[in-house]
Design brief:
334 residues, mainly alpha, MetI-like fold, 0% strand
Length: 334
């Protein structure tokens, strides 16, 4: 791999980040929404009266958040802030900073989605590998229809079904939340046990839906490897079936699965937005939903920018690591 290729890929990475960040800036403003005015009106309505001096308060807040400047000036300020990973203050949660809000919600999302993604990837890949292997037990073929059926169901819809069955009817798990109300989050055995207990239904909805996709992809790759010359040659040499299965078929079928896993891990920040909303889970998805609903430009921009950055970094790493994973892949010109 040449230095020129690495520099080219890094340059493309920064270009994509800039384009995506630019779209991230302009899209929330296309609707002509005034988040400051809407926030103050909602607060006044909750107080049961119309506040006096509303326009003066709007002007002060607009100046505080830099929303009274021309759009091009806001864009330049936005680019400068993003380059320092400074996401400004949250409009709907003022005077809290966006980085502090994201910092509190990020561990919940990362732990939930990292755990569920890895579990579903491992189980789905193993199931798909066995279902695509001619010598596997026949009963595994009956697992494909239910797995594909679940894979067609959205995360949040299955989550609603699980809530109805196991939280509302049977009352085996809590209806919502990430921990028992009134408790203070901390790294104590009792709190961790409570957090795991509250995360079972959200995790189960993600795992059950994801299993079918991973299994189907791996099964297709395993079927493809059966016709390859190296598998035929290994079988003709009299190698054991387990050796051919592990060292020849699975090893060559795993590359697309690893690529897909890396891309999914890059999107963990907002991978299950509606699941967190349905379960009122205190993660990134919930605060992103609140930010969109409340017109909080800076909160939405901060979360989306982190998502853009994570996907871009994962894609860049994949581009640089691919030739090391598979020697057949080269970016050198013949």
């Amino acid at each position: 791999m040449s230095i020129g290729y690495v520099l080219k890929r890094v340059g493309m990475f920064f270009l994509i980040i800039w384009l995506a960040a630019t779209i991230n800036f302009f899209l929330p403003r296309l609707g002509g929404q005034d988040p400051i005015a809407e926030m103050l009106v909602q607060q006044a309505a909750m107080g049961g009266s119309i506040q006096t001096g509303m326009q003066g308060m709007i002007d002060i807040y607009n100046e505080k958040f830099g929303l009274n400047t021309p759009l091009w000036q806001q864009y330049l300020n936005y680019l400068e802030d993003m380059s320092h990973l400074d996401f400004n203050y949250s409009i709907s949660h003022y005077p809290q900073r966006v980085s502090d809000i994201i910092g509190r919600a990020m561990p919940w999302t990362l732990v939930l989605l990292t755990t569920t993604t890895i579990i579903s990837w491992v189980l789905g890949t193993l199931l798909g590998a066995f279902m695509g292997w001619p010598r596997a037990p026949k009963f595994l073929s009956f697992l494909m229809p239910p797995l594909l059926s679940l894979n067609a169901v959205p995360f949040f819809l299955l989550g609603l079904v699980l809530i109805y069955l196991f939280a509302f009817r049977i009352r085996l798990f809590p209806l919502s939340g990430g921990y028992q109300p009134g408790t203070f989050p901390g790294f104590t055995p009792s709190f961790l046990k409570d957090a795991v207990y509250h995360s079972i239904l959200p995790a189960l909805s993600i795992i059950l839906v994801s299993l079918g996709g991973w299994a189907l992809g791996m099964r297709a790759m395993m079927v493809t490897t059966q016709g390859e010359d190296f598998v035929t040659y290994a079988d003709a040499k009299g190698l054991k079936g387990s050796t051919i299965f592990l060292r020849y078929s699975i090893r060559n079928a795993l590359l697309p699965q690893v690529t897909a896993l890396a891309l999914v891990l890059g999107q963990l920040v907002s991978g299950a937005v509606l699941v967190e909303v349905v379960f009122t889970y205190p993660g990134i998805g919930s605060i992103l939903f609140e930010g969109i609903r409340g017109g909080d430009f800076f909160l939405v921009q901060g979360i989306i920018f982190i998502l853009i950055l994570s996907i871009g970094l994962v894609t860049l790493i994949l581009d640089l690591v691919y030739p090391l994973l598979d020697p057949r892949i080269t970016y050198q010109r013949a």
